[in-house]
Amino acid sequence: MTFIRTVLSLTLLAGLANPAAAQFGIIEQGAKRAKQVSDFNWSDEEKAALGAKVSTLVRQRYGVVQDTAVHKYVTLVGRTVTDKSTKPGLPWTFIVLDTDAVNAFAAPHGYVHITRGALALMKDEAELAGVLAHEIIHVTEEHTIDALKKNTIKSAAAEEVAGGNAMIEFLANAAYNNILDNAYSRGDESAADTMGITLISKAGYAPQALGNFLTTLAERNKSATEKRGLFSSHPEMEARQGKLGAAIIKGKLSGTQLVSERFKTTIRYKPVPQSQIATVEAGTKGLAGGSSQKGSTAKDSKSTSTAKAEAPAEAPKKKGFGLGRLVSGGGSETKSAQVVGSGGARGLDPEKDAKGGSNPAVVAVKFTPAELQAFKKAGSLT
């Protein structure tokens, strides 16, 4: 691929550098390398590879709820929304992460992750649609790739990355760290809000639902001393709610459906206060425990996925590198997960550093177009 050839040529430049070269020369080479990557026009194949790798890292970090019924329900809601998006044909994959933390993550090329902690905090299907739509907009507008360019490439300017495969690992791990740190720009976050509620309204859901969820989230987090977890990089809540209200009026958004009963009969997780969320030591993998079924009405089911990715290994830290948890494909041993107590213990972020489940396998979901249409009709959606 053009991308890999570019990476290999850049790597050769780095490898041929004279060890005694002046610092300016090294930085200049790195800057050229960074610019070429930043300017690269990603193909769909490369976006798919990046998204798949990022999703693997997220799933290995938090585990996946192994419940086919819950995944099918979330997927049907998500696909109801994506049908109204600018990219309905992407291979959309909706994944419920096995953690009490309240969070959601988007990865390129159609990967949307939401935690069971977020589901537990919601009151109706429209709120679920609103949060999924926010992440869907991050995908369709390619905010993750934009954040990768802005927040990572400049950090990599003086960094040597050896080999074509290592470069895709580097980019995927950088993107993973960006989404865990909510590294989207304020403009991208605001766009995801306003475009997201427009999207759910087109599908028939009440656009006020996202604001309703945010109100619940703000109440839950009122005692927190820092902005954490879902939408933590957004403007202050009052201003944000005001923008959502103005967008509903300006756009004449007319969706009305909340679909409360269907949500309540399918999703029965119980919310855990932020102060009581078990956390694990930063930098660990293979997180132990985490109930994958608690609160759900569905019976346990084994994943139909046969591809269980290997856990990544933690690379040695490199001096001067701006991303703290870079993971590479080889070599060094990764620390085992260690539960260190409830949220806030040892200064950990109870949302990002939350304990997760141990099974990262994707739960395959199958449905027919007729099933999706029946789902929409039952909820008076379009």
TrEMBL record:
GO terms for cellular component: membrane. InterPro entries: Mito/Outer_Membr_Metalloprot, Peptidase_M48. Residues 73-241 form the Peptidase M48 domain. Residues 284-360 are annotated as: Disordered. Residues 303-314 have a biased composition (Low complexity). Residues 321-332 have a biased composition (Gly residues). This is TPR repeat-containing protein YfgC. The keyword Protein transport does not apply. GO terms for biological process: proteolysis involved in protein catabolic process. Belongs to the peptidase M48 family. GO terms for molecular function: metal ion binding; metalloendopeptidase activity. The lineage of its organism: Bacteria, Pseudomonadati, Acidobacteriota, Vicinamibacteria, Vicinamibacterales. PANTHER family: METALLOENDOPEPTIDASE OMA1, METALLOENDOPEPTIDASE OMA1, MITOCHONDRIAL. Binds 1 zinc ion per subunit. It holds the Pfam family Peptidase_M48. Its cofactor is Zn(2+). Keywords: Hydrolase, Metal-binding, Metalloprotease, Protease, Signal, Zinc. Residues 1-22 form the signal peptide. The gene is yfgC_5.
